[in-house]
Amino acid sequence: MFAPYLDRWSLISDGEPIITHSSRLLPVLWQDRPAMLKVTANIDERYGALLMQWWDGDGAAYVYAHEGDAVLLERATGKRSLLAMAMNGEDDKASRILCGTAARLHAPREKPLPDPIPLTRWFRDLEPAASKHGGTLADCSAIANVLLADQRDVTILHGDIHHDNILDFEARGWLAIDPKRLHGERGFDFANIFANEELPVITDPVRFRRQLAIVSAEAGLEPKRLLQWIAAYSGLSAAWFLGDPNIQQAETALTVARIALAELES
């Protein structure tokens, strides 16, 4: 899988392969620079590579080469981790870094991006799941429908901003990887800060309220609007998990949604 691109781009293997559910990755050296060779047939991943090229290193990792199923990316070599920070007393700092990176990605660009995925299409699985399961999912779906019908501050979105998708690139700062290439209201991109299931404290209402104040201030978002996006996003995540099915992760997402819904009612 990697061999044709190692030859084509004159790459030197620099570590063990990394296998994910959608991609095969290999740390390499390209022109004496640390890079990551990523090969995938997943359509979302391929769209994401196009968006990375469009950002051209501003807020995201550079794309050094791209052909078919393969993309050669700038590799993060820093030792810091936003997830580790969030779990070890620097949760607020991590959230501010996530917001700052998102702001760079949302900044206007003059060049067009072909065929981004609208948020209305991204949310297409929520309403059928809400009809099937009802309860909290139905509340989330109703909120999502209102948001999607009246989107504000529409821009190109990363689509999956969380603590493991913003990495330490040392002198270049904190940069994004693995976008979904979406288009819609920028508030959507801040919801996953509250919903990353890798972070055990996301179901703590006290932590939730503290991060709500931080993220809404850093992102310049009305707290109520952010709460609505958190509820909508968490409902969509739960719908996907229920479809897998992954009941435990679905319940975690629904717990976050319930916290957001409770805050909206308070």
Automatic annotation (TrEMBL):
Domain of life: Bacteria
InterPro entries: Kinase-like_dom_sf, NH2Glyco/OHUrea_AB-resist_kin
Annotated protein name in UniProt: 3'-kinase
Organism: Rhizobium beringeri
